[in-house]
What we know:
Layout: H1 7-19, H2 29-40, H3 44-56, H4 61-70, E1 72-74, H5 84-88, H6 104-127, H7 130-139, E2 143-145
Antiparallel strand pairs: 1-2
Helix pairs in contact: 1-4, 1-7, 2-3, 3-4, 6-7
Amino acid sequence: MNSSLTEQARCLTHRVASLTGDPAMERRHEELMEWAEAELGMDREYAEQMYALAEEEQLPPVYALLLVHCGIGVQELEEPEQDADEAAHQAAPPEWVETERVELEDVAMERRLRTTFRRFRGQMESAGTPAAAVAAFLAETDVGPVRLR
């Protein structure tokens, strides 16, 4: 991310700093969901999904909710262009194979969220404090404003 702090980066920095000693860190699942709805303006169903993803990625859910709320994460690299051989391959299974339809946007969003949560967790493990983790996370070149909801 560039040296100037964006609105999203300021949001994350401020929100994480305000958590120090905040009971939000120790809240039970239900209380955290109510906090996400009331304080972060997050839809309950989406907050539940973020909570579940955060637990799978071993990130304290409060940080996942803040990353999503502030809209900061790992930015996707541009997709490589297909060469002629790749373009000739069939992208979808034949019609006779029954598959459950998944929206591409949902898959891409989940990948972006998981990548963001893993990267932030790594910073939390190595930085020592949440504030230092935020600073290290924001200093990464592929971290910046992203749409996470």
